[in-house]
């Protein structure tokens, strides 16, 4: 097969262009410190990086949800601690009275219980970032009216903290406080007109309400521990993904400089080879 001059120069041109592309790629690696700067240059690595970045965004989203859920649960934890103590305080106030309707302590106990009731309703209407956390999903309105009526809904707010994993964040005010408010109202009424048996019955109801609050408090502690565990697992997953990304994408600075030098040398040799071919062909022509 006869090799024409155009074939020789075409091959030389393609060789130079290939080495120019290699030099440009090596230069990009030195400048950016990354192996993959244009996805089309490395489809397999590019696809892997896109997958890793998508998963990292998902991990960040889940961890952000965990932070929000943790904040709301921590507020509930504090509220329930306070409410438990307030109910105990009401029980102690009622214990100081006796069955005599004329007992002067009854009046002071009623006032103290009324104050405690108001404090519990205030706590039940707690807000986090402008949302009433004990109103169920009706977070734009208080959980309780001043008369003790629950006006939230019965649906618990949920947050997604992992793929296919949701967690109920806050209990509803109806679950937590309605029993205690009703028991306090009954106790206040018993102290107003009731006998000793009625007072004891109201105190038993208040005791049951406190036990219920304590049980829900335990659930909050369990949810907080689960959130902490999930956050640590997500942190480990993020670290593993970042290691994978680094292994695929990041280059050793010294290695990239050597690669750049090698690409530059290859381009110089290609230019020299083309120069010799051109010189030879001119000489042949002159002969």
TrEMBL record:
GO molecular function: structural molecule activity
Lineage: Bacteria, Candidatus Eiseniibacteriota
Positions in coiled-coil regions: none
InterPro entries xrefs: Flagell_FlgL, Flagellin, Flagellin_N
Entry keyword Translocase: no
Top-level taxon in the UniProt lineage: Bacteria
GO biological process, one term: bacterial-type flagellum-dependent cell motility
PANTHER family according to UniProt: FLAGELLAR HOOK-ASSOCIATED PROTEIN 3 (PTHR42792:SF1), FLAGELLIN (PTHR42792)
GO cellular component: bacterial-type flagellum hook
Protein name: Flagellar hook-associated protein FlgL
UniProt cross-references to Pfam families, sorted A to Z: Flagellin_N
Transmembrane segments: none
Stretches assigned to the Flagellin N-terminal domain: 12-139
Entries under SUPFAM superfamilies matching the protein: Phase 1 flagellin
